[in-house]
Write a structure and sequence with these properties.
Shape: globular
Number of helices: 12
Strand content: 15-25%
Mean pLDDT: 89
Structural class: alpha/beta
Low-confidence stretches: 1-26, 28-32
CATH architecture of the largest domain: 3-Layer(aba) Sandwich
CATH class of the largest domain: Alpha Beta
Order of helices and strands: HHEHEHEHEHEHEHEHEEHHEH
Largest sheet: 10 strands, mixed
CATH topology of the largest domain: D-Maltodextrin-Binding Protein, domain 2
Radius of gyration: 23 Å
Distance between the termini: 68 Å
């Protein structure tokens, strides 16, 4: 081969390398040439309109309207603590057009309480983690339990002397109660309700001594002085509740967040996963989304798909160990 031919070959190689490097700096649409959505993307939500999962889905949909060139539609498939929406996603084609809001009950706790036709470890492709909602145990403002230590002391006087409400049998807050019992060495009386609104209503009516829930769902009643949060079942304090300790601080190391993120069917091709991750990550940086986070009390907690999956598996294992499975 002549020197000119060698030079030409080197120029071609250098040019190709430069083009590859330049591609990584291009905008989202240009980098995902291998896949572009051509029909509406559906976000399935396993809980009723107005709840935290529904709000997250709708706010993400709105925030992505100028980023994703097709409509992003929210579809509520309510029931079975979110398992109906999860199953519909597991059964869908891995084509990028169906995702669901997962990471909570439907992917961490429900499978320990009832048979499911999907496996949280293998049936999904986690795309992006959006938030975590620290589990809070709260009491009425006039409760005799001045703090968490008082509640624990009363609970240790006898099995089921202290009751707690949750958002449903097998849900993440029911599971948090079980992990709490196992770690603290006590037995509470669990009273399941059909969602956060019913659980909070029961607490205010004096039907239960305490209730587990997420901060963003309890926030209006906390702000109004109607309920008092005793402790956070999370790895860190909430900036919005600086005086509420974590259970670990109180000597009972229990941390189980109600995570939320987008998950697709298993075997989602990498270019589609990358496109969806990048698009919704960009949506989380828009002013509208940031305003929602600030006003709602949502604890934003971004993670990519791999890290999100690791957290889900960790929660599944923690709950299974407490239940004895």
């Amino acid at each position: 081969m002549s020197s000119d031919s060698h030079g030409l070959t080197r120029r071609h190689l250098v040019g190709a390398a430069g083009a590859a490097l330049g591609l990584s700096a291009l905008p989202l649409a240009a980098r995902a040439q291998a896949w572009q959505p051509t029909q509406p993307i559906t976000i399935l939500v396993g809980f009723a309109p107005g709840g935290s999962a529904d709000q997250i889905a709708r706010q993400l949909s709105y925030a992505a309207k100028d980023i994703i060139p097709v409509p992003v539609v929210v579809n509520n498939r309510v029931g079975a603590a979110g398992a109906i929406a999860a199953q519909a996603t597991a059964d869908a084609k891995p084509d990028g057009y169906t995702v669901f809001v997962g990471g909570g009950s439907e992917t961490t706790s429900v499978g320990h309480f009832r048979p499911l036709n999907y496996d949280s470890r293998t049936s999904f492709t986690p795309v992006i983690k959006v938030s975590r909602a620290p589990s809070i145990l709260a009491v009425r403002a006039d409760s005799p339990f001045a703090d968490m230590k008082a509640l624990i002391a009363e609970a240790k006087k006898g099995a089921e002397k202290v009751s707690y409400g949750s958002t449903g049998e097998g849900g993440i807050f029911h599971a948090t109660g079980i992990v709490f019992e196992k770690t603290a060495g006590l037995k509470l009386l669990h009273v399941p309700y059909r969602g956060a609104a019913d659980s909070m209503t029961a607490l205010l009516a004096g039907q239960v001594d305490s209730a587990f829930g997420a901060y963003e769902e309890m926030k209006p009643m906390i702000d109004a002085g109607r309920v008092r949060p005793l402790a956070l079942f999370s790895r860190a304090r909430l900036p919005a509740l600086p005086n509420v300790p974590t259970m670990t601080e109180l000597g009972v190391p229990v941390a189980l967040d109600n995570m939320k993120g987008l998950m697709a069917p298993a075997n989602l091709p990498e270019p589609i996963k990358r496109y969806l991750h990048d698009a919704f990550r960009k949506a989380m940086q828009t002013p509208g989304w940031k305003d929602y986070v600030a006003k709602s009390g949502l604890t934003q907690d971004y993670a990519d798909g791999a890290a999100f999956q690791a957290e889900i598996v960790s929660a599944v294992d923690l709950i299974g160990k407490a239940i004895g499975k």
